[in-house]
Every structure is written in structure tokens, then in C-alpha cells.
Write a structure and sequence with these properties.
- By secondary structure, the chain is an alpha/beta fold.
- It is 38% helix and 19% strand.
- The radius of gyration is 25 Å and the shape is globular.
- The N and C termini lie far apart (71 Å).
- Bound molecules: nicotinamide-adenine-dinucleotide.
- Nicotinamide-adenine-dinucleotide binds next to helix 9 and helix 10.
- The site of nicotinamide-adenine-dinucleotide (NAD) has 30 residues, from helix 9 and helix 10.
Length: 535
Amino acid sequence: MSRVLCRSVIALRLRLPMARHASYLVDDPKYSFLKDLGLDKKNVGVFNGKWEANGQLIQSYSPANGKVIAEVQSANTADYELCAKAAQEAWHAWAELPIPARGEIVRQIGDALREKLQPLGQLVSLEMGKILPEAIGEVVEYIHVCDLAVGLSRTLPGTIFPSERPGHVLIEKWNPLGLIGIISAFNFPVAVYGWNSAIAMVCGDVSIWKPSDTTPLTAVAVTKIVESVLTKNNIPGAVAALCVGGRDVGQTLVQDHRVKLVSFTGSTAVGQQVGVEVQRRFGRHLLELGGNNAIIVNADANLDLLLNAALFACAGTAGQRCTTTRRLLIHEKVFNEVVSRLKKAYAGVVSRIGDPLLSETLIGPLHTAAAVEAYKKTVAEAVKQGGTIEFGGKVMDREGFFVEPTIITGLPHDSPLVKSECFAPIVYCIQIPDLDTGIQYNNEVEQGLSSSVFTENLSDVFKWIGPHGSDCGIVNVNIPTNGAEVGGAFGGEKATGGGRECGSDAWKAYMRRSTVTINYSGTIKLAQNIKFGDE
Ligand code: NAD
């Protein structure tokens, strides 16, 4: 939905005055943290070493009250071109820096983020809508990735293999890719950039970041923090370029042959187009797409543990995590108990839905008016198809984009609704007779991001993590589907895109590998002992 149309919908829904020069939240002393981050009423959304933009003006608003926070001038095609040129130019010096020296820059970025932890978390909460502890957690995640990347900068491997030929050595050498593109989704407006940027920087890449056009202020604030470190160290700012914009800027980046890797985080529908487009030019892509995550509740599950986990997993972040639990596959023996206890747990948090910046709030708003419409449509369709709304199901009568967390029973496990991702706090409870059926249901959706089983049975744990278990990228036991740590590789299979970010060997996506054979024997020997001619 275009920003202008979006504003009209908000104004209708919230009966807001559409005054052209209404005061913005950035000028309200209550939100003074915005000024601490260097934000103003009108901000430049393009950074190529210099801040300069000529595209459309975007208004960024708070989903909690529909009020405009501030404006951001986005990129046009010419602005994107300047970013790409400047970033490519900056790459030469950046790639020549010793890897530990690049790590030192990333270490300083981590420290700069620590200094701005509170205001940046507050901005994420205000602009995206997640509650403050989660928003701060997101900045902490970026800091953790910086720590991980600093370690990596001292340990990036290169292997020497034994050669079959005398006087030869076989080396695997890793080099930076060059310019990479990072396209991010609205729901993790800091962490997703951090996952990519920190690792890519130590790998020796430079980047252009195309953030979501509904969280542009967070992107500007993060880039200002990174810029401060680069400037202090006399590093060209274009090493970490920013291009705020919508689909048009995203498409330009995706089609740009100079961009060696496109790391895309977003919906499966858009990610599929991006993947095909990048493949068309033989670029590299890293796709982090939609999920449809399930928790299996075994008959022997510790239900106290399960209920504790499920509340956050299903209703937390107002259902706007890629790893949110959307299906509870519950053993028939404990089905009624789980549903009834979950309803009680939901009832206990309804009074704590509200302004995400307040300490008593547990659940914030949906991000946009369009998300509220999608929620309404899904609930209506579920009822039409014979589902029972066990809890919630309604839009809340208050300013902002608030909906009730919702529990639905009675839909078949394979109904198209259950098999699709609605990015809202709706969970489907489905009965299973045994773990095998649970695994079958878990795996039958097209997405393959996260999954979990609650059980006390060791054999079931190993079945679940084995070849006939969950087919997801994240396979948990006795914890919710959401809330991953940075040390492991994050990502999912099938329509979730297959990409991996953060820990483990995810760095490999940001580098190119050369197999190098060096002959120091003084004679030419062919592999496999092949004799050619009279030799
Ligand atoms: P989205 O697909 O609407 O947008 C994602 C990004 O793509 C935005 O920056 C957008 O401007 C850009 N974009 C839109 N059309 C484009 C095009 N044709 N070419 C290039 N770029 C384009 O997603 P969203 O609504 O911002 O985010 C929610 C989705 O993201 C959910 O499906 C969620 O599951 C997924 N997500 C996945 C992960 C993961 O790690 N797997 C993490 C976060 C979010």
C-alpha cells in the first residue's frame, strides 16, 4: 500500500486530522530520545559518504497512535547510482585492510551501539511497535553479532589440503565478494541489518542497505551510529551506504550486476521474485522469508513449561516475528487442557496490550492499517470455514493498530488458511493422535523456518531432530519457536528461502572461495597421474 493511501486509511480509521503541518512526535519532549539519535523533523534517507537524497518524502508514523514521528527523504534512481558508485570505490581500500583491522571497526560499532542502546531501542519500539524490552533486545542482538564478528576477524579460516602431486600445495582461499545489498523487513529493523552488516564488514564487503520504507527513521539512526565510527577512523562512509526507499529502489538494487550478493529478508512472495531476478543475472542471493511455525505438544509434555513458552511465542510481538508460533499441534489427550489454559493465559494479558513504550505493556500494536485488514480478513475466513474463535478475533476500539491475540480451533490441519502465514497474532490449535502425525503436519506446509516439540521423552527428541523429524532450519525442544541466539546459523528451508545468517559458517555467504594449487616442484605433473604426450 502506498504511503499516501496508507495515511488516508489511518486517518479514516483513527479519525485523525490530516493537517499538512501537524506537529510531529520528534518535537514532543516525551520523545526526546529521537533528538539523541540525531533525528529531526525532516531527515535525509540516503547515505553515500554524504547525506543527500532527492526522492519522495516519506512520513514515518507510530503504529501505537497513528501520529507522524518525522519525515524521511527517500532515494530516487540517481541517488541509488551515487550510492553504488561510492560503495564500489570505497571497497578497494576496505578490502585491503587486514581482517583484524576491519574487526576493530566492527568492535567500535558494537560499542557505539551500546552507548545508544536505550534511545535506539525506544525508536524501534515507537516506529515498529514492538515492546521496549524486545526492541532493546533487538539492538543487543546487533551488539552480539558485532562481538561474534570481531572473533571471526581473528579466526576466519582458510584450509590447506594434502596434494596428490609432489611439490604441490592445495589451498582454499576466501576473499570478499565486493558490494552486497541488504534488503530488510519492517519487523526487525535493526537486527537484520546487524546480522548482515557486521559479518559482511569483517569479510571485507561493502553494502547498500535498503530498509523497509515503514521503518526509515530506525535505518537513518543506525546508519548515523555506524557513520560516527567510520568517520572517527577515516574510513569512507560509503562502506555502509543507505538507500531508504520502497519497491522501486529494492528492484533497482536486485537488478544491479555490481551487487554480488542480495541478502533479502521479507515475505515469501517478494523473496521468490527477488531470488529469480538475482539468479537471472547469476548473482548470489541469501533469502530469509516467511515462516509458518508449529509447536508439537506431546502427551507427556510439561504443560507449565509449554504454556509459559506458548504465550510469548503465539501472542508476543503481536504475532509479528518470522518465528511466531502459528500452529499448536496438540496431543488429543491434553488438547482440551492446553486450549483452556492458553485461553486463561491470553485473558491475563489483554489488559496489558497498549503503548509499547510503557513498562507494563506486554503486547503492542500491529505495524500498519494493512496488517489490521489482513488480520480481520483471516479471522472472518476462519469462521466462514467452520473454525471456532476460542479467544479474541476482534480489532480493539482504541487509537492505533491494536488487535486481540486470537486462538482458533476446529480448522483442518491442511486448510489453506492454516497453511499460510498471516503476520498477526493468530494461532490455530490442531489435535494430533501421536508424534508422527505431528511431524507430518509440521512438515506439510510450504514454509520451513522454525519448529519445536515439548516432550520429556528422549527417543522422541532424537526422532524430532533426525532425518524423519522436523524439516525446518530451526528445530527446538522444550523452548518456543522464536528467540534465536546469534551463535547458530539462522534461517529456514523450502519457501523460507534456504538462507543462513549470523553464526556457525554463515560468513561463507559473504565471501568467494578460490581453490588454489601452487606448484613448487619445478616440473609439471598432472593430477590423477595422467601422462600427456612423451613426458
Ligand atoms: P515485504 O516482503 O513486504 O518487504 C520486505 C522488503 O522488501 C522491504 O524492504 C520492501 O520495501 C522490499 N521490497 C518489496 N517489494 C520488493 C521488490 N519487488 N524487490 C525488492 N525489494 C522489495 O516483507 P515485510 O512485510 O516487511 O516483512 C514481513 C515478512 O518478512 C514476513 O513474511 C516475515 O515472515 C518475513 N521475515 C522473515 C525473516 C526471516 O529471517 N526468515 C525475518 C523477518 C521477517
